[in-house]
Every structure is written in C-alpha cells, then in structure tokens.
Design a protein that fits this description.
It contains 15 helices and 5 strands. By secondary structure, it is α/β, with parallel strands linked by helices. Strands 2-1-3-5-4 form a 5-stranded mixed sheet. Strand 1, helix 13 and strand 2 form a beta-alpha-beta unit. Helix 1 packs antiparallel against helix 2 and helix 5 crosses helix 8. The longest helix has 33 residues.
Length: 321
C-alpha cells in the first residue's frame, strides 16, 4: 500500500491511489499493528516535491482509511466486548498499558533482543545499524524514529499482552531489516555480507528446530474436533479452561466460552454457563495438570480431560449438600 502511495505521488495515476487506499485499509483492518506504516505517509508527502493536488488526495484517502480502522478497533470492538462478552480485545489506556509493561519488563524486552529475529547475531546487526543511523543519517533517522514512535504507542495500547505473543513483533521486522541492511551496506565488506547472512539463517533455524520438526509438539490440539464430535453435537456449546487465546476453541469447531482456571470453582459463573446450555468443559492437562473441576469426567487421554457440565460429580454434589 505504501509503495502504491509512492507511485501515485510520482506518476499521479488513479489506479495507484485506489490500490494504496484498499491495501492499507485492508491491512489495518486485518491487524492493528500494520497501521504503523501510516506514519510514512506524511514523510512521503512532505519530503518529496509532488503536486499539491496529489498531496491533498493522498492525505484525504489516508485519513478516510485511518478513520475506518479507528472505528473498527476503538468503537466497534468495545461494543462487541460490552454486548457479547468477547474477551479478545486488548486495547488499553496509555496509563494501563504502561503499568502492565512495567510489571513484566523481561518478557517484552525479550521480544526485541530475540523474538523478532530468532537470532542474537541479527539483533546485534540491527542494533549496530540503529546506532549508526541515529548518529550519522539525518533523513533516515527521522523515518526510523517516526516508526519507532508509532510502534511504542502500539505497545502502550496493548499493554502486557505485548509480552505474550511473538507476532506482535511483526511490525518491528521492517525496522530491524532497515537497520541491519544499512549496517551491512555501509560497514561490512561485500565478500563477508553473504557469510553473515548465512550465519543469521543458520542460528535462527537452530533456535526454531522444534517448530520445524514433525509432528509438532502441540499437534495434539488437532484432535479436538474428533473428541468434541464423539461427545456432543456440533450445535452444542463448550467451554475451555484457557487464557485469552481461543486457539483450542477454533480447533474444536464449536462455539462457547473461555474460562480462567479459578472460574471453574466459581459457582455463579458455572451456573451462568449451565443456564446458557454449555455442554462440555475441556481442560488441557499439559497446561493445567492439577486442575480438577467438580463435574463428571467423560473423556481422558494424555492431553485432555473433558467434563460433562450438565451435572456435578457425585462426590462434589454430596460435599455441596
């Protein structure tokens, strides 16, 4: 989308303006972190000698795309949370985000020095490039600092969740690549660049060997649909003991709820789900080995326990009475 904006600024063709609008809008609506690239629009507009009409049209289309994305994330998503109880909504106030990040400094710092590249060597090259850009390259410095500023705002808006998911580092990857490329081009002899890049690839693959192996260590989740089908109809709703990640719900091909472990002991919450027709409760034995909800067990294997939520176990019913 940004490339299309650049082509429009240079050539003035409507097809480039339309593609810029569509690609950037769909990118932002698909994932909020993608919006960091919008900071490049004013840099493009005000650092290039382009016609006033093109400047105005680029600004207008960028503003429309931004308003659509802002409405989606900051008006519509909060409505879904308040109306339907969806908990997949992480946008926080700046103070809340800062407080959550301050409580978990090591996990989110790890996203920068390792998770983004999966290579300490690549991180070192990026850091060296960033330092040299800030010291020596005035124009590139403005671009890099602008991108980092937007990304820091994003970090604050998602708060502690930033420290949980590696994919939040995807927007930082272009900045890492820009800094690394600058350092290699300016300070490393061409005959050594390929060697360094091969070393980066090799190190990264070693760190990710578990994800490259088959079967994957979490492939057991793929059998959730079969388990659920053997115990209930597709129309039945279910609950999973989980954090805010609905992955297992997706694999079960069911609708339902996610429960924190302590909520399985909350009679008010359980009664609420029972009244809404929740049929089964799934517990991941790998993640929650000691959790034993007060329901009749209907399925067990090495990875999952499944309970019938329609009635309590005889032992727990007697204790309750």
């Amino acid at each position: 989308g940004i490339y299309m904006a650049y082509l429009y600024s240079m050539r003035g063709k409507w097809v480039h303006l339309l593609l810029f609008f569509l690609l950037c809008t769909f990118g932002g609506l698909s994932k909020l972190p993608a919006c960091f690239v919008f900071i490049l629009i004013p840099l493009l507009v005000f650092t290039q000698k382009i016609e006033v009409q093109r400047t105005i049209l680029l600004s207008v289309f960028a503003a429309i795309a931004s308003l659509m994305i802002l409405y989606w994330y900051f008006v519509w998503n909060p409505h879904l949370v308040s109306t339907y109880g969806s908990n997949i909504m992480f946008v926080k106030s700046f103070s809340e985000g800062l407080d959550e990040l301050a409580k978990t400094p090591l996990p989110w710092l790890e996203k920068f020095y390792f998770a983004c590249t999966q290579s300490y060597l690549a991180t070192g090259l990026s850091t060296a490039g960033l330092i040299m850009i800030l010291v020596r390259e005035k124009r590139t410095r403005i671009i890099v600092l602008s991108l980092l500023f937007m990304l820091c705002i994003f970090m604050l808006k998602v708060g502690g969740v930033f420290a949980v998911h590696n994919y939040y580092m995807i927007p930082f990857a272009p900045v890492f690549a820009l800094c690394s490329g600058y350092f290699l081009h300016k300070y490393i002899s061409p005959k050594y660049i390929l060697i360094l890049l091969l070393m980066v690839v090799g190190e990264s693959m070693i760190h990710q060997i578990g994800d490259l192996s088959y079967p994957h260590k979490r492939s057991y989740k793929l059998k959730l649909e079969t388990i659920a089908d053997s115990l209930s109809n597709r129309d039945n709703t279910v609950a999973f003991v989980s954090d805010d990640n609905p992955l297992e719900m997706y694999f079960s091909h069911r609708k339902g709820w996610l429960l924190w472990p302590e909520e399985t002991m909350n009679s008010k919450k359980i009664n609420e789900l029972q009244q809404k027709g929740c049929a089964l409760l799934f517990v991941n034995r790998i993640n929650y080995p000691k959790l034993k909800p007060a329901f009749n067990e209907v399925y067990r294997d090495d990875h999952y326990l499944v309970y019938d939520m329609k009635e309590m176990s005889d032992r727990d019913r007697n204790l309750s009475e």
